Structure formats: structure tokens, C-alpha cells
Amino acid sequence: MNTFFGWRMVAIAIAIDFFAVGFAFQTYPVIQLHLEEELNLSRFVTTLTIPIFMMCSAIFFPIVGRFLDQYSVKKIIVWGAFIYSLSLMTLYLTINYLTFIIIYGLPIALGATLMGNLATSKLVSSWFEKQAGRALGFAAVGVSFAGFIFPNLTQYFLMDVLLLEWREVYLVFGLFLLVIITPLIFLLVIDKPSDVGQEIDGGIQAEGSKEDENSGIEWEIKDLLRNRNFWILTAVFALQFSSMMAILAHLTFYASERGWADQAAFIFGMYAIPAMLSKVVFGWLVEKKLDPRMAVSISLGLQAIGLILITTTQSPTQLALVIALFGFGGGAGLPMSNIMFRNTFTPKSFGTSRGLSQPFIFLFQAIGTPVVALIFQHYGNYDRAFLMLTVMVILAMLIIWLMKKPQDLASNS
Length: 413
What we know:
By secondary structure, this protein is mainly α. The chain is built from 19 helices and no strands.
């Protein structure tokens, strides 16, 4: 009997997400400290990089999502990795912030979108139905694992030990992605079970049988835009992700303001391991028929508690522990969003529905980070900004219960 390749695809998805998120997103909070000093940038301008990156990604997401529902996921990921690698290497040639942000916002955003979590979630969705919650939870672990590894790798090894400056860090990342990761993606990724004579959730496809691949109805964009649940899910995860991104974008600055600059990378990385665990835990809970609205509410509640406690910390260790709690709550957001969109709008239209939601989610995310910077510059501290983020998360906890006839995401029917 052939070995089921579905869990192998989950492992590959973890690795792809790890590098896709790590190179551009998780490394930047360390890079921005050096960028601000070298280029003499304001705090507001420095923290604009990731929001601009995400705003540009938002333009690509609906198109990429539609492509993922219609074409080979493997080819899309390979092209994304190729574009991403060349773009990272091009950062080595930047001489000012304008050229830096153009590269970050266009080719890097395009490559990361083609290669990122939307594509890997579509890949995993093509292999699982009964264990989709668990599989998508595991698949999203790479995103959080990157948050632990890349800040520490960048600061303490590449910069402190190897004495690389930030341009050289991006050059190394680009070369590694081009020479090693991209060929491995081409060799190892399998689009769907039928390509190797298997069926969803395992088993061998009988000769002449037709696989129920990407089951469900095909949603048109105009119908999604008129759907109540689409907008509720979009609003909830826009609020959650906006809060998450704003904290991560400002965390190293906040630690530095408190006099803990030397521990900033460690503190930043402390959200990652709990976030990894939460992805698996919440995916498993939903698969075991916990009301998905309750799962989202619990994760948001933990995130809100973390936000409230941040400004009460009195040491780097206390802040690291609070960030770990914050990470456990916020880390569930990615798999829960994928699970809920997949099951509410069917696996067949997962790419389209999830991709269409991203411009609205990213728009809110992009606004949150610079608003926090402006509040900091006006008041000279982060207290009011973090209170605003807490209110946003609590609002999301209420909105999720407005879902009309929510899907039982654990159901296999």
C-alpha cells in the first residue's frame, strides 16, 4: 500500500511558510533598528515598511487566490520563490529608503504572496477533509516558528557573530532561497492526491474513479461580496491581525524605550513558540467540534489579556512572558481564518474567498501600525496605543457571534 503523501505536504507547507514569512516579515523588526539609524529615518517612516508591503500584497491576493483555484499550486509557489529570491538579493543594491521600499513593496510582496500561506493552505486543503482542521493548524506552524528563529538568527548570528550588515543579510537569504529552497519545492510538492493515485485523507484511488477534489460549490466574487458571513469573517480577522501586526512592528521599539534593547530580539521571538502551539491546539479543538466562534473568541480573549498586561511589565522577563501569552492567543488567528473560510465557502472556492478577503484585512492591518506610531509620537509612550489595540480585539470577540448560521467546521458532511 502506498504511503499517504498528505502529511508530507503538510511538512512541506510548514517549511515553505517558515521561509516565506521569515525572510521579509519576521526579520524586519531587527533590521528596522539598523535601518532607522543608518538612513536617519523617523519612527513613523521606519514602521511604514511592513504596512506598505502588506498593502501591495493585498492587490495581488485576489488574483493569486483565483489562480490557486484554477491552476497548479506547485507552479505558482515555484514562481513565487524565484521572484522572491531575486528581489531579496536586489535589496543589497539599495542606497536609500525609496529604492528599499519600492523593492519591498512590489517584487518582494508579489513573490511572498505567490509563495505564502494562501498557497500552502490551498495545497493542504487539497489533501485533507476529515482532518482538515488539524492539518491546516499544523501547516500554519511554520509562520510562528519563523517568528522565533529569524529575529534571533538575524541579530545574534548573522549580525553579531558573522558581522553582516543588513544588506548582506538579505543577500544571503536570497541566495539560499534561489539555490536550495526553490529547487526543493519543484521536486517535492504534489498538487493533489490524484496526481499520485491517492485520495483525500489517504487511501488508494480506484482505477477509473473520480476524486472529489476541491469539493463544494464555486463562489463568484460578486456573491462573496454580498455574503454576510464573508464580511463578518473579514472584519474579525482584520481586527485580530491588525492588533497582532501592530504589536510585533513596535515591540522591539517598545523594549528599547524601556531600556531593554539588548533583549529586544529575544522578547520579540517569545511570541513564536506559543503561537506555534496554539495553531495546532485550536485546529484540533475545532476538528473535535468545538464551536468555531467559541474557538475564535477564546483566542481573541487571550490576545486581549496579553495586550492589557504589556504596559504593566517591570522586566524583560515579564514582558517576554506576556508576549508569549499574547502569541498563544493571536497565533490561532491564521489557521482559524483558513479553516473558517475553507468550510464556510467550500474547499473549491477557498483560494477565491480567502484571497478576496485579504485586501480588506491588509488595509486595516496597514493602518494599525502607523496609527500606533503617530499616537506614540504625540504622547511619547505606547499606553494609549496599546489600549486602542485592546478595544479592537474585544470588538472582534463580539462581531464573530454575528455570523449567520455558522458552519460546523468540524463536520465532514
